[in-house]
Design goal:
Belongs to the NusA family. It is found in: Cytoplasm. It comes from Limnovirga soli. Its main location: cytoplasm. Monomer. Binds directly to the core enzyme of the DNA-dependent RNA polymerase and to nascent RNA. It contains 15 helices and 16 strands. The chain has about 425 residues and is of the alpha+beta class. A hairpin with a 4-residue loop joins strand 14 and strand 15. About 40% of the residues lie in helices and about 25% in strands. Strands 1, 2, 3, 4 and 5 form a 5-stranded mixed sheet that branches. The chain folds into 4 domains: about 130 residues, 2-Layer Sandwich (N Utilization Substance Protein A, Chain:P, domain 4), CATH 3.30.1480.10; about 70 residues, OB fold (Dihydrolipoamide Acetyltransferase, E2P) (Beta Barrel); about 110 residues, GMP Synthetase, Chain A, domain 3 (2-Layer Sandwich), CATH 3.30.300.20; about 60 residues.
């Protein structure tokens, strides 16, 4: 039998690349029909038969037997005298089926066909992968760490597809070892050099959203909805939730008995503090809840400029600002407002204060920027904190802090 075994060309693909068999057979058929057109001009009188199980391929040529001298189309007709050389019992009017020896195409043509086949199947693989993961964007996936690099981690899914977890999408406390299983969310699918690149994320708010769906059945069932999530990965997150059933406490359902539901998520996020609050359309109440764990004394809200001045007792200011200013930053993101925190004076009036910008002649700009980064943008906001607290929250040395406090205090003494 004149046939060519194509196992080497596509056996490895048909089992591992998620390409369905009819599609694979159609690709092989198309590749060899192209080969036929190059040699015979037309492929109309040829049948390409693919046995995907064995990896065999046969090409059958069929022509009508006509009287000698009456052959009008050599591609579709054959003279009787030629037909009887193949089989003596043939008669005029019958159809001659003849197997084409693939080797007749020549080694170069066969090699080109195999290369074209591999290329077509490679394109099919890319398209299958692209569609599969494009449809799964926003889903949680568990994948195995295959390689750890400085700027990214390469993971493999259960089918051996490569996934990328960039450094920018990793929680700062993340540490991965080869062979370890890692949970993350499918962030997006990029095309690089015409090949799909699946990007994962552990810092996306969507990751926390999906973890809550897994741990809290009420969210999965639609009884509780997550209105908004803001995160500072590895530090703190704020989740605003709302219940569609008055009998269900959304915060209690998310936290669980003695924190049973939230603890697993906190561990997954490397001990990220998660504040779950009740969503409300009352913006003042939302601001109050968003600054948890601090307790507000009173506030002044300007809806037109989307600005709020919040006043708290001295011991609540640092709680409202949070470590490195994270708490107030997340509160601003959650409410969509620009929030400023002030220390409430004993008489209920705002104390005299001086903006740090007024001290640029005496204090270096980088020191002022460092203080503003942690929410200290006025002189009194710094003097209200102990040197030890400032040292803990900033990258400043204690000598710099003491000198800074001296400059600020002298200004108040002169006033």
């Amino acid at each position: 039998m004149a046939s060519i075994n194509l196992i080497e060309a596509f056996q490895e693909f048909k089992d591992a690349e998620n390409i369905d068999r009819p599609t694979l057979m159609k690709v092989v058929e198309d590749v060899f029909k192209t080969l036929l057109r190059k040699k015979f001009v037309s492929d109309d009188n040829f049948d390409v038969i693919v046995n995907a199980e064995k990896g065999d391929l046969e090409i059958i040529r069929h022509r009508m037997i006509v009287e000698d001298g009456e052959v009008m189309d050599p591609l579709a007709e054959v003279a009787y005298s030629e037909a009887v050389k193949i089989e003596p019992d043939f008669e005029v009017g019958e159809e001659l089926y003849e197997e084409v020896d693939i080797l007749d195409f020549g080694r170069r043509a066969i090699l080109a066909a195999k290369q074209t086949l591999a290329s077509r199947i490679g394109d099919l693989k890319k398209n299958v992968l692209l569609k599969k993961y494009s449809d799964r964007i926003g889903e949680i996936i568990t994948a195995e760490v295959y390689q750890v690099w400085k700027k990214e981690v390469l993971l493999l899914d259960e089918e051996g597809n490569e996934l990328i977890l960039p450094k920018s999408e990793q929680i700062p406390q993340d540490y991965f070892k080869k062979g370890e299983n890692v949970r993350s969310v499918i962030r997006r699918v990029d095309l690089k050099n015409n090949a799909p690149v699946i990007i994962l994320s552990r810092t996306s708010p969507e990751f926390l959203n999906k973890l809550l769906e897994i741990e809290v059945p009420e969210i999965f069932d639609g009884l509780i909805t997550i209105r908004k999530i803001v995160r500072e990965p590895g530090e703190r997150a704020k989740v605003a939730v709302e219940s569609f059933d008055d009998r269900i406490d959304p915060v209690g359902a998310c936290v669980g008995m003695k924190g049973s539901r939230i603890h697993g998520i906190v561990r997954e996020l490397k001990n990220e503090n998660i504040d779950v609050i009740n969503w409300t359309s009352n913006i003042q109440l939302l601001i109050q809840r968003s600054l948890t764990p601090a307790k507000i004394s009173y506030m002044e809200l300007d809806n037109e400029t989307k600005h709020a001045d919040v006043y708290l007792k001295a011991d609540q200011v640092s709680l409202a600002i949070g470590r490195r200013g994270v708490n107030i930053k997340l509160a601003c993101e959650l409410t969509g407002l620009d929030i400023d925190v002030f220390r409430e004076s004993e008489g209920g009036e705002e104390e005299f204060d001086i903006d740090l910008a007024e001290f640029t002649d005496e204090i270096e700009p980088w020191v002022i920027e460092e203080l503003k980064r942690v929410g200290c943008d006025t002189a009194r906001s710094i003097l209200n904190l102990s040197p030890e607290e400032l040292e803990r929250r900033t990258d400043l040395e204690i000598e710099t802090i003491l000198d800074l406090r001296r400059i600020l205090q002298e200004e108040f003494d002169r006033e």
